[in-house]
Write a sequence for this structure.
């Protein structure tokens, strides 16, 4: 974890930003059973709890008192029975000292503090709970019925947490760079292993193993698929075939749970066909355009649309789209080929703070998620600010069922050559994703070295592994 000063500063700053007063209640996560209570999923602490306390252990909660400035950490010291099974652990008092909290109490005591605040008419701030068990916990300590919890979410707290977490400090950026280095190792391993006859699962297992060897594991379930047109494809059973493309979308968490998220698409044969190269270079140009344009003050929605314009121009040059590309993007016609957004924030979550609510994280009073085709899938549309970390992940996908649907409905028929698009069914999909930091004057790509990205870099890297 960072030094205790970091966590003391973050909590003081959060208290300062929640001007309405009251108490802030922060439940950490608990172990979650797979198939019986003692067989648990990999433990993942809540990211806001991690941000404010840095403690990655189950069974903790905290209260920040805005008026008094006091922080209380609630957790139980281990019993001898626990120690027999889990080994010795630091005392709760010691854990508190690591993050600058002097007042530590047993977990069961949090209810008294919250009940007292409710009795005095003080505002009890909490974020939207995303795990059922924390809904029950919050309901128990606040007295609010579970279905009513969503009516009591503190918007002020949500905005304050987002305003802190959305700008990464230098020490956080260094951690994200470490996550990117793990990502580099994962993706170059995939390139090394990718060849005809290999089963997707072999690559998925190897790269997820690297995430565990070098950090805290993957930042999301890896996508390793020859059918890259299926956006979140978690099936790993295909045997790689000559002439196909393999799409790998994968990232890691450092031991402090900062994330990376990269996507590369590579030719199973080691060399792209001319047809694959044409599509690949359009996606790469859209990725480069986003890096060219991203700077403080720009709406990420506009950068998404500029990247989509590059896609539409390229697809028009190939005769897959037609008409004026700018008009096509205006009507959302590019969404047939890229039905997702350009990117999302990244930090302690791979989709940073998505639990808090997209309207506070990716949008604001100025920008709201549109329902219009072409922008409706964009997770983040608001203005960029120095310190923000974003993914840039344009793609082109040929989804047979989607092409058939648009064709049958005649949707954007003036901008799509459906017969030509159908010729690409079976092509798969291409996505190229890098991570970007907004700096004072522009942006910088994260990662000490970029995962091979151009056609030449990917082919040369794959060739060097086959010698
Ligand atoms: N890399 C997976 C996602 O962004 O959804
Ligand atoms: Mn992503």
């Amino acid at each position: 974890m960072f030094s205790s000063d970091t966590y003391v500063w973050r909590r003081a700053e959060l208290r300062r930003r929640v001007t309405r007063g009251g108490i802030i209640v922060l439940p950490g996560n608990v172990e979650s059973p797979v198939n019986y209570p003692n067989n648990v999923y990999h433990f993942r602490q809540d990211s806001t709890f991690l941000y404010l306390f840095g403690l990655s252990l189950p069974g903790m909660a905290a209260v920040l008192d805005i008026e008094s400035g006091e922080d209380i950490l609630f957790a139980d010291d281990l019993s001898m029975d626990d120690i027999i099974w889990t080994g010795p652990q630091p005392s709760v008092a010691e854990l508190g000292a690591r993050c600058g909290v002097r007042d530590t109490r047993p977990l069961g005591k949090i209810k008294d503090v919250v009940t007292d605040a409710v009795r005095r008419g003080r505002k009890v701030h909490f974020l939207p709970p995303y795990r059922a068990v924390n809904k029950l916990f919050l309901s128990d300590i606040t007295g609010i019925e579970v279905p009513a919890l969503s009516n009591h979410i503190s918007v002020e707290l949500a905005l304050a947490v987002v305003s802190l977490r959305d700008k990464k400090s230098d020490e956080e950026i260094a951690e994200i760079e470490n996550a990117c280095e793990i990502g580099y190792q994962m993706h170059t391993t995939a390139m090394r292993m990718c060849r005809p006859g290999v089963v997707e699962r072999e690559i998925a297992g190897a790269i997820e193993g690297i995430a565990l060897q070098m950090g805290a594991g993957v930042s999301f379930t890896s996508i390793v698929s020859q059918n890259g047109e299926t956006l979140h494809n978690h099936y790993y059973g295909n045997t790689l075939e000559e002439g196909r493309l393999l799409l790998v979308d994968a990232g890691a968490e450092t031991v402090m749970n900062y994330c990376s998220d990269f996507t590369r698409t590579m030719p199973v044969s080691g060399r792209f066909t001319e047809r694959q190269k044409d599509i690949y270079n359009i996606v790469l140009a859209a990725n480069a355009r986003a890096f060219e344009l991203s700077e403080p003050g720009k709406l990420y929605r506009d950068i998404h649309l500029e990247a989509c314009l590059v896609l539409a121009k390229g697809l028009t040059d190939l005769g897959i789209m037609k008409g004026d590309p700018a008009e096509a993007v205006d009507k959302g016609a590019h969404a047939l080929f890229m039905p997702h957004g350009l990117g999302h924030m990244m930090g302690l979550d791979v989709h940073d703070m998505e639990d808090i609510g997209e309207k506070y994280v990716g949008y604001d009073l100025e920008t709201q998620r549109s329902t219009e085709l072409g922008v409706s899938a964009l997770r983040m549309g608001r203005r960029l600010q120095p310190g923000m970390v974003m993914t840039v992940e344009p793609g082109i996908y040929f989804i047979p069922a989607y092409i058939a649907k648009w064709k049958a409905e005649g949707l954007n028929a003036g901008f799509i050559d459906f017969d030509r698009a159908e010729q690409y069914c079976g092509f798969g999909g291409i996505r190229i994703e890098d991570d970007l930091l907004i700096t004072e004057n522009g942006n910088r790509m994260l990662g000490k070295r970029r995962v091979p990205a151009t056609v030449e870099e990917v082919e040369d890297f794959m060739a060097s592994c086959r010698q």
User: Anything to note?
Assistant: The first strand starts at residue 23 and ends at 27. The pocket of manganese (II) ion (ligand 2) is lined by residues 261, 344, 391, 393, 433 (CB under 6 Å). The CA atoms of residues 127 and 153 lie 6 Å apart. Residues 170-193 form the longest helix (24 residues).
